[in-house]
Amino acid sequence: MKLFTVILTLILLSGFQQAFAGRDHAHGPIPESSALQLAKEATARLTEKDAGLGFGKLPESWKATPAGAVKIHKKGRGYFIVSVPNTTVEKTLYVLISSNGEVYDANFTGEFDGLE
Fold it and tell me: Most exposed: 20, 42, 58, 91, by fewest CB within 10 Å?
C-alpha cells in the first residue's frame, strides 16, 4: 500500500507532463533525452514539497544540477532509472520513470523493488 501511495504521489507531482501532450498525442515510448528532462523536473519539484518518499523535501541546491550531469543509470524493459547528482550535498537521487514518461519513484539507492 505504501508503494501505491508513493507512486500516486509522484504521478500527481509530475502533472506537468500533461501540458506537453495534445489531444492526439500517442503515449508511446519516450526517448532517453525526455527521461533525463523529466527526472530533472521531478527533482526540482521535490525541492518544493515533501512527496512522502522517506527523505523529505530536498534542499534547493538540487535545482542547480546541470542538465549535463543527469544520466541514464539503468534502462530496462519499460523503464528508465535516471541519476541526478548533487555535488553540494554529495548525493545522487535516482528517479524511476516509465518508458511512456510517468515518474513513479525516487530514492538515493537506485534500487527499486519489482524491476527486471
Answer: 20
Whether 57 is covered by a domain: the verdict is yes
Q: What's the total number of domains in the chain?
A: 1
Chain-centroid distance, C-alpha 101: 9
- Provide the sign of the torsion angle of the four alpha carbons 13, 85, 81, 50, taken in this order: negative
pLDDT digits (tens, 9 = 90+) for 35-57: 999 999 999 999 999 988 899 99
Closest alpha carbon to 103 in 49, 5, 35, 30: 35
Whether residue 112 lies inside any domain: the answer is no
Question: Who's near 2: CB < 8 A, 6+ residues apart?
Answer: none
Show the domain range for 69. Answer: 2-21+28-107
In angstroms, the first-to-last Cα distance of the chain is 21
